[in-house]
Amino acid sequence: MRVEKSFCRLCLGMCGLDVTIDDEGRVAGVRGDHENPASQGYACVKGLEVHTALYGESRIMKPLKRVGDSHVEIPLEQALDEIAAKMKMIIAEDGPQSLGFFRGTGTFGSNVAIFSWPNLAEVVGGQKFSTMTIDQSAKWVVKDRLGTWPAGKHPFMESDVFLLAGTNPLVSVYCWDMPVQNPMKKLKEARANGLKLIVIDPRRTEMAEFADIHLQLYPGEDAAVAAGLIHVILANGWEDAKFCADHVDGLERLRAEVAPFTPEYVASRAGIAADDLVAAARMFAHEGKRGSVGTGTGVDMARFPNLAEQLYETIGVICGRFAREGEALPNPGVLIPRQPPHAEPVSPARDFEKMPKSRVRGAVRLMGESATPTLAEEILTPGKGRVRGLLISGANPASAIPDSRKVVEAFRALDLLVVIEPFSTETTRLADYVLPPKILFEHADLTFGLEANSMQMPYTQYTDALVDPPAGSEMADEGYIAWALAKRLGLTLNYFGTDLDMETPPTDDYLLSLLAANANIPFDQIKREAIGGRIFDELPEVRVLPPSGNGGKFEVMADDVCAEMRAFATSQPVSETLDQASEFPLQMISRRIREVSNTSCRDLPTARKRAAYNPLCAHPDEFAALGIGDGDECWVTSDNGRIPAIAEGDATLKRGVVSMTHGYGGLVGEDIDYKERGSSISLLVSLDRDCEPLQAMPRMSGVPVRVEAR
Ligand SMILES: Nc1nc2c(c(=O)[nH]1)N[C@H]1C(S)=C(S)[C@@H](COP(=O)(O)OP(=O)(O)OC[C@H]3O[C@@H](n4cnc5c(=O)[nH]c(N)nc54)[C@H](O)[C@@H]3O)O[C@H]1N2
Ligand SMILES: Nc1nc2c(c(=O)[nH]1)N[C@H]1C(S)=C(S)[C@@H](COP(=O)(O)OP(=O)(O)OC[C@H]3O[C@@H](n4cnc5c(=O)[nH]c(N)nc54)[C@H](O)[C@@H]3O)O[C@H]1N2
Ligand code: SF4
Ligand SMILES: [Mo]
Question: Which CATH code is given to the segment(s) 1-130+371-446+468-520?
């Protein structure tokens, strides 16, 4: 037995782990690494059982090829030959845009994989898809319409107030604006330093338990709440007037547009108390001096996501809550070095207006990606550019994309479906080829994705490959697969400006060295010193420079935002839809739980024991009003589908709101036992109705439903 340091890669937390390896060279157990300077011993229940996934029954051991209705094993190189031949044929017949490259959250399980698919798509000229456009695509829209402050927001740990809306990092271990490794510890530290917290969420979440003010709104009313907060801030002169004069365009227009959003009006729309709204505005903008606003999936999956996200970000803008001239950035960057930014905004680039739009529904492309909500239609709509071949890495879109009935129909219509996936999933069952990758402790890795997301200190971790893949398996990494396909297509793959040698397969270590090519610390030193994780606090601080004089302006009320504001103001308030006499009187939101991650980890021991199915949660009074008791079987129906569920009372939910965890259920059309596998809430969401017109983002939170006893 020996113990080695590594990190978990089941979610973006990338927690440091002590990995026990037995004499046969297999992982026998893992523990949170108390010496890891970032995660400080924290690991969630999934991480602690992660080794069981390595050797579990659902692990795919060899490349598979579909023959008729079943899969047979096929040697890797033969699979790659056949896949490349099919890709060539599709390109020759219909052009490279007929190939889609889909990247999911599983690519964060290997930091080389994060880049392999986009890089391959780039040289092939295919369409890029990812889960970001069924997640927080509104953030990309807002960057493009509001502008950015390159020096960044006030860091969470140095703030005296923070507003978090639609995010629950204590469970999700994910947030764009809060350090998430060991989030409870970080939150308690920040609170001990005097941080005040405002949480905006329809559920009294684990995070809301720590809030000084919890605005328990109806889902889909964030635009009202954010507009109301801005209204109160501007009405009292609590904005940073100097900052606005220097750096903001459109303030008077903003003032005019938020004028109708009085505390009383917002209170009646959103189901909160007017006094609480005013108190939150005061706490944030008047009493608090440092600190900003962070949002999560709750805001960006509900209706009017672009508007709501924009207004929340605008609160930070008008209060000038950004790192200013002379301040040191919290993280000078280890793998991704930061250049000293100037204390000024970059004007909105509106790149989404410059990219060609999708041929279906005219959805915009964001950051060069096609909109995932249009993928099924891209496949099913005849015409030039129809997606005929789809190559998926680290995703389970047959379950995760809303309206899975339509998605599965589309996947069945493909000429080529390739999935790089370690486990048997709903999507692998539809695939023509499945290529299993090495995972977790089987390959070397670097915490690149963590640094790119929320790491607010100069931290990085390197891990060696600690164990071999299971005996008798044939696995290939995403990096190798992308290289091998590019080679067969006669193309040269490029990582961060470096062309790969297309004669010699790249080693894992070489690809990682490219990830670290621009790092502030030489890769060799990282490999020596960051096993176990290391904060490189010897790196020189990066301080914010004075304005260059060529800076831009934030645009807080552009024409299209203004049009959305008016559409929202005239939309039916959620509070008016909750009448029991209406067809769909309740609002379904999703609920992340510690035991599973999206569609993943459902087969880990604790998930099987504690969370085999996903209950339907609602306030006990809600169930009482419906005549439904705890444990009763019921139906949940939306305008798009009906799923079975079992009721579980939960007083943390607002009346009128019900919640279930997403990622459960089986493949559409398969007969599964709900108590064993749960139900898919994807079936309740429509890809056609209630979408944000710009990027076709469906309404995935605040879905109108009806609940009846079964
Ligand atoms: N109704 C509803 N639907 C939702 C959501 C919701 O809140 N409500 N959330 C949405 C969000 S935010 C997202 S991001 C999507 C998630 O959508 P997906 O990314 O499609 O879902 P995951 O289950 O995270 O899929 C990750 C896959 O990667 C595999 N994997 C794990 N490790 C590796 C690895 O090292 N390499 C490779 N190649 N694969 C690996 C896992 O086994 C798993 O099958 O779901 C969305 N769907
Ligand atoms: N254990 C676990 N961890 C995960 C995942 C997982 O499935 N399980 N998924 C990973 C992924 S892919 C992502 S993107 C991140 C997401 O990370 P988060 O965005 O933090 O996701 P959630 O924990 O679902 O928090 C969303 C919150 O929004 C609230 N909400 C719902 N509707 C609304 C609304 O209309 N308005 C407001 N203001 N709030 C609303 C919900 O009640 C919930 O508390 O988590 C990641 N981490
Ligand atoms: S929070 Fe859990 S799943 Fe995520 S990295 Fe840490 S141990 Fe792994
Ligand atoms: Mo996500």
Answer: 3.40.50.740
